[in-house]
Amino acid sequence: MQCPHYDAGRCRSCTLLDIARPQQVRDKQAHVAELLAAHDDVTWLPPVVGPESGFRNKAKMVVTGTVEDPVLGIVGPPGPYAGQSVDLTDCGLYPPALQEAFAPLAELVTRATIRPYDLTPERDGRRVTPRDAARRGELKHVLVTLSADGELMVRLVLRSTEAVARIRKHLPWLHARLPALAVLSVNVQPAHAAVLEGDEEIVLTERATLPMRVDGITLHLRPQSFFQTNTGVAAALYRQARDWVEEIDPASLWDLYCGVGGFALHCAAPGRSVTGIEISAEAVASATTTAAELAALPAAAVVGDQDAAWWRDAVAGVRFDAGDAAGFALGTDDDPELVIVNPPRRGIGPDLAGRLEASRVRHVLYSSCRAQTLASDLKHMPSLRPRRAVLLDMFPQTGHYEVLTLLERVPA
Ligand SMILES: C[S@@+](CC[C@H](N)C(=O)[O-])C[C@H]1O[C@@H](n2cnc3c(N)ncnc32)[C@H](O)[C@@H]1O
Questions:
Q1: Could you tell me if the CB of 336 is within 6 A of ligand 1?
Q2: Domain 4-52+227-409 adopts which CATH fold?
Q3: Least CB-packed of 70, 157, 269, 316 within 10 Å?
Q4: Full pLDDT tens readout for the chain, 412 residues
Q5: CA-based torsion, 5, 9, 13, 19: positive or negative
Q6: Is the reported ipTM for this assembly greater than 0.95?
């Protein structure tokens, strides 16, 4: 992929742009194989490789510049553009429908006079008073998610609610200018901190969820729920998990760190009990909505390869609960036959790994976005051995990747 911003030194986010894509994938495969080298009986499937550009379904834009001339992009990295506003609205990682949303959103900033926030770090560790903060402006980030059907969820991360009434006033204009807009919300982040978003979310549109179709299953994303960055590769990930689960055909499974339920709903089947656990109540609400919809499909509907009656029976055994994954697992003596884990980058940690090691669980499907923590978690589960694995190039042009591995309990 050719990128003028990278070539000029304005953006360095794609750390592997100088390396041809096939070589990037070979290097990632070698990296994960080395991390799992202690496990010599792993069968690796061919890597899953999607397009090298236009694959990102979400953009996290820093807003700099002025009300009259806002800039959506990043603050320049060390080098000739250090600290400068860099416009990334034409970033090649975004599909055209995402790129096209930025101009109307920049126009909204001007029309609703939402002053971009000065994110420059504090010098001398000085405390920021509320008055200082107000002087620094309001709009910190614009977060945009694009669904497979071309609809948009837009979140404006603001310092306070000061601009909310003005944004509301311009909403009819924005709907006309950006017809794909399904959800617009404001996230309030008062802290002058690196943490991207705050706890308070104010939905301004009638619709509060973005329907995200994956393999025919419509997941319902709420503003604060996580979704995989690369819809095409995420679909391949869920399909692979479903294929392995079908082969094993467990009567019961847990999907820990389930987010909006992608794994759980792909792996549901009549007669199987599926429990999804997730820390974000918003994501659990999204997953529950999807399950309820699948339970009440019109009689003639077909989702994936299955008809309405199959889905009604399949989701009868599905439930989602909000909570800490390790706390849930450690708080029960029940063991399902199979466990899916898809934790954040920090991995599942020794407590949950130890719980799985000591359990009667026969198979674990571990989907990891950081193979280093997968490798260290595996050390706490010596009885659960990786048998099959596949690398999914979820984040082309960077060193990151997803790896899905099927662990099987070895006989004592
Ligand atoms: C990598 S995402 C995976 C989400 C989901 N499996 C999917 O495919 O979209 C990790 C998820 O773990 C959730 N999470 C973070 N800490 C958690 C915890 N202690 N217990 C349960 N879920 C947690 C996050 O909110 C996020 O949804």
A1: no
A2: Rossmann fold (3.40.50)
A3: 316
A4: 899 999 999 999 999 999 999 999 999 999 999 999 999 899 999 999 999 999 999 999 999 999 999 999 999 999 999 989 999 999 999 999 999 999 999 999 999 999 999 876 655 556 666 666 667 899 999 999 999 999 999 999 999 999 999 999 999 999 999 999 999 999 999 887 667 889 999 999 999 999 999 988 999 999 988 999 999 999 999 999 999 999 999 999 999 999 999 999 999 999 999 999 999 999 999 999 999 999 999 999 999 999 999 999 999 999 999 999 999 999 999 999 999 999 999 999 999 999 999 999 999 999 999 999 999 999 999 999 999 999 999 999 999 999 999 999 997 6
A5: positive
A6: yes
Q: Which two tokens stand for residue 11?
A: 């953006």
CB of residue 366 inside a 6 A radius of ligand 1? no
DSSP secondary structure string for all residues of 328-346: HHHT-----SEEEE---TT
- Which value, in Å, is the radius of gyration of the alpha carbons in the chain? 22
Cα-to-centroid distance, 259 and ligand 1 (Å):
5
DSSP 16: T
The annotated binding site for S-adenosyl-L-methionine is made up of 228, 257, 278, 342
Give the C-alpha separation, 237 to 239, whole Å. 5
267 is catalytic: no
Amino acid at 269: A
Tokens for 407, please give them: 């662990």
Contacts for 379 with CB less than 8 Å, ≥ 6 apart: none
Per domain, the residue ranges of the chain are 4-52+227-409, 58-214
What CATH class has 58-214?
A: mainly beta
Q: What residue owns the CA closest to ligand 1's atom 6?
A: 258
Same fold, 4-52+227-409 and 58-214: no
